[in-house]
Amino acid sequence: MDAAAKLFARRGFSGTSMQDIADALGIRKPSLYKHFASKDDLYSAVLQQALIPFSAAIDDVLNSKSPGQNPRALSATSLRILGDNPDVSHLLLQELIQLDRPIHPDLDHWLDLLFSQADSVVALEGGADFGPLERRLILLTQLNVVLGFAVAKRLLPQNIDSEELFTLERDILQNVVAALYGASSHGKSRVQLPSVNTDGG
Question: Model-level pTM?
Fold first, then answer.
């Protein structure tokens, strides 16, 4: 699965074949089918493995018994997860930007769960007065920043200490999140998002 994750992250689902994965492992392709019935089954397993830590992080916040638990820590936790698993950010972006097929059902289902959980997280953070679409956009903004940091590391100096970089990214990310909720570090009032009619009218 690790070998498949690296190839899917680099080439996407359509650009990766079972033969490619077998070649990367130094085995014959029929050996792969002893473990996975198809490329789609293998891809599903890779996606599920990649997404589990993010769901667990949200569950930790929602089920926390500590009143001091800060939902904004979710973004920093996600940043850490992606830093420890660099292929995951590329894998998710490959899936989100591909246009030749719908989003994979496993990722689509996970996103639905994420957005429903995010409503609760946003409410915890003080965004209960945001509408459903606004909450989703706030979450997508956070996701884009986190993924952007993860995939753009090649644009940064290569000699920077990894923990120093994580600290800088975390602080910048938390300022972005604070601004999204209208409680920025500069003391500005809540950002007034325009009301959105979600009924199609």
Answer: 0.76
Instruction: For domain 50-180, give the fold.
Output: Tetracycline Repressor; domain 2 (1.10.357)
Report the alpha-carbon distance of residue 4 to residue 128 in Å, rounded: 40
Per-residue pLDDT for 108 more than 80? yes
CA-CA-CA-CA torsion sign (61, 113, 86, 143): negative
Rounded Cα gap, residues 49 and 85, in angstroms: 11
102 exposure class (CB count in 10 Å sphere: 0-12, 13-18, 19+): exposed
Domain ranges of the chain: 50-180
2-21 pLDDT, tens per residue?
999 999 999 999 899 999 99
Per-residue pLDDT at 175:
86
- What is the DSSP annotation of the chain? -HHHHHHHHHHTTTT--HHHHHHHHTS-HHHHTTT-SSHHHHHHHHHHHHHHHHHHHHHHHHT---TT--TTHHHHHHHHHHHH-HHHHHHHHHHHH--SSPPPHHHHHHHHHHHHHHHHHHHHHT-TTS-HHHHHHHHHHHHHHHHHHHHTGGGS-TTS-HHHHHHHHHHHHHHHHHHHTT--TT-PPPP-PPP--TT--
